[in-house]
Amino acid sequence: MTKRLQTRFEALAKKNRAGLVTFITAGDPSPEISLEILNGLPEAGADIIELGMPFSDPMADGPAIQLSSQRALNNGASMIKTLEMVGSFREKEDETPIILMGYFNPIYRYGSQEFLNDAVAIGVDGLIIVDLPPEEDDELCHACLTAGLNWIRLTTPTSDNSRLSSILKNSSGFVYHVAITGITGTRSAEIQELESTVKRIRSQTLLPIAVGFGVKSQSQVREIGRFADAVVVGSALVNTVKSALEENLTKQQIGLKVHEFVSELATGLR
Amino acid sequence: MNSAAPITDSYRSGPDDSGHFGIFGGRFVAETLMPLILEVNQAWQKYRHDERYLADIRYYAEHYVGRPSPLYFARRLTNHLGGAKIYFKRDELNHTGSHKINNTLGQILLARRMNKRRIIAETGAGQHGVAAATVCALFDLPCVVYMGETDIERQAPNVFRMKLLGTEVVPVTSGTATLKDAMNEALRDWVANVEDTFYIIGTCAGPHPYPEMVREFQSVIGRETREQIMQWENRLPDVLIACIGGGSNAMGLFHPFLDDPSVEIIGVEAGGLGIETGQHAASLSGGLPGVLHGNRTYLLQNSDGQIRDAHSISAGLDYPGIGPEHSWLYEQERIEYVSVTDQEALEAFQVCCRTEGIIPALEPSHALAHVFKLAPSMSKEQIIVMNMCGRGDKDVFTVAEALGEKL
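Structure tokens for the assembled complex are given below, as produced in the milestone run.
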């Protein structure tokens, strides 16, 4: 198993703070700008990077991430380019864990085993595949763990205790808790309810728990960081990319804008 | 049929308990939806053999939909083609004008038993949307139909029909703003409204149990056909032909005949401008296996696994996937799948209007175009049954435009 995730969570535990997971879509809005954004994330305060693999039909995502996928695909994004982007990042940075998030079809087309081999070789640390629930993930889950990549499963407010145990069974790296019943970038969770759900999950696993969906601001990051091990921000970041684009900023300026926002979020955990 | 039955040498025993037809089918949905899908399946397995539930369906099918639909001997068309005898299964005579209501009726009666208070649906051409809106009006349940903005423009009469029936039609602008995006949007709605909402999927695709459930509701077409052809001919037909978008009308006609080796079965996909142009909706002839909308099946996609847009003159066939059971039957080679172009369908449409006085929908016009190719080469004693799954009123604007006429 790649060690970056475990090392990072151990370091965070020592510092006694939750980690910031930043989501961006690979290749959004273009390969160059996306790489510029990616490269500056650790310095800006991202503890873990979640990189979206663009898909034409992202059924669990809200408008912000849908549009970011479209921007990326319109500018030539592909699975190979996503992996190459991780490769470029790894040339300079070998500590920050990178998780690829996406849907199964592009991986299936690529060839599941080939994809896993390529991903681990180029420096990926784990996968989150939204449309592979435990009932359907046999063909990728075990191969993924064998290849040395973390298999990160999702828990949701609709996961009762019996589902939780089957979800947690083959999870590794961390557990990604979806805070709301809904799609990314829409409503936000009730904090108290969320906290009790996280408690319930924690009673069943030793893995760190990250919380995402509907987390948009520094104050939300701070609140959730009090009881979760990591907080995921996605749609708010890709919306920053979108608004920067609308202002016709340069590559460096877009990168700067995203990094400033990440720093602001990171402050909520420090 | 018991869903727990093992896969035997029958073509009719699938899916298995987890919804797989060989490698196809399944439940590829986000975790948030899994408990709901399981709940739908639990209710479906509980009621599918329940006598009162089935009696309810039969009551509305007879008195509201107008079943059984006739099996009609198309004498003039038979003479015109000069070969096999051609029968139409007249599901276009159903209330709302297509086979779609067979399915929405079954699903809404299930939703009521599950105490769901809100219905959502996706639609492409609007036929399923209208059928869903109709049963929602009948049972007084609020209904939201997702429809791609592109489709809203080209199917204005059906959009207004849904509104008249009290349904809210939500334009979908994401992706390519067509049927596949409408289905994505309906799934997103469902994820966000898990407590009270039932999703009525319009074709035999989606996560288990939908492919099985829709097939069972549509199989009334094939069951009636079996009885009716025995009355007409005292034997089974030689060939069954139906058009395929998602494949529900075809599955409905075909399924009761799958284990009759003497019956040749042909599914007709929409070839659009021709398979070689890439502008088509033929998932089997021009696609590859993949995962979308909760199931593994053949899909139109590029080498990177991105879903490609379908093209067909018929909005109802304009879908980049196909029901998983069709994918399985294709690989089993039990059913032959062919394709027919926009142009061929358009020609068959016109001939049907003039020889039989039936204005067919553009969807079954594809099936008809294949009948035109096949019938002349068959003997006069042989029998073809074609599913006339929808009427063409909705298509007159599209056809007028294709023929260069101004209305």
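DSSP finds twelve helices and nine strands in chain A. Chain A has one domain: 4-260. Further analysis is deferred to the final report.
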